[in-house]
Amino acid sequence: MGTETIVVTGGAGFIGSALVRCLIRSSDCSVVNVDALTYAANLDSLRDVDENPRYSFEHVDIADDKALRRIFAEYQPSAVFNLAAETHVDRSIDGPAPFIRTNLFGTFQLLEVSLDYWNTLAEPNRSSFRLVHVSTDEVYGDLGGAAPFSETSPFAPNSPYAASKAAADHLVRAWHKTYELPVITTNCSNNYGPFQFPEKLIPRVIIAAIEDKPLPVYGDGSQVRDWLHVEDHVDALLTVMDYGRIGEVYAIGSRNEHRNIDVVAAICQCLDELQPRSDRRSYADQISFVVDRPGHDRRYAVDPSKIESEFEWKAARDWDAGLRETIEWYLGNRSWWEDIRTGAYRGERLGLGR
Q: Which residue is catalytic, options 58, 86, 137, 257?
């Protein structure tokens, strides 16, 4: 990676901000963060880089064709990472429209602008251009007891969120097959780590625990997820951009499956050590089983054999250590998540259906 300019859409989100921080910290490239600053975006996650001369921020919605064209013309990117997305399944159940607008129509607009821009490039810039589209394992639906999903697994999305991402993945594939746009798609498992929006499972449980609130576990808590540290995910994305084959799909996971109830119990056990309750009871006493999410998939997991074998990439973070470090981060950065909860999200239950 040299001194090129990289556009990151959704760069104020959880994974996007981790990618931006890594690019600024570990490379000489310039980074343009394109973000609409919807409820889950947080520029405070980028305080470490926001004064760096190689970092630029554009408050732009990827569904805005004219604004995107201006950005491409002004910055002349050599690569694009598309992480702009509405991502929370519960919110998609309550209101699917923003998911269709951003995840599907926004991806369409980005593909169109990228294609027109790419067609203006001369060699060698034309050959080196890449668009990396970042997606999810949820497009494959409910794994059940089968072997983990691979790049060839059929799509079977079960939530409005998953359906919007699956549709976007199909568009990306079509723009490559039809117009030869140089794209690469990744499908990752559940991410965790610092700066994750508090509506997601791990930060939601940490925060509710230390605020002495019930720790809601959907259904019986036996849903299984493959947990991937966000910094491992970022490392995989950079690997794919540098070495991935055009038109290919890469599944990114950590072979780290855990039941939701076991994740919650592990958080409680760690908090018992790091910040014991004043009454000396375990935080596990706060666990409360609640009505399950409609259409809740029982298991997700991906097989990362392809990225492991082609590039010798492997998730490096140990689960126990990574979870502990994440908990310590939320304990030490209360102002970050307290500021968030003065806005659109206040910890309420979402996704009960309509």
A: 137
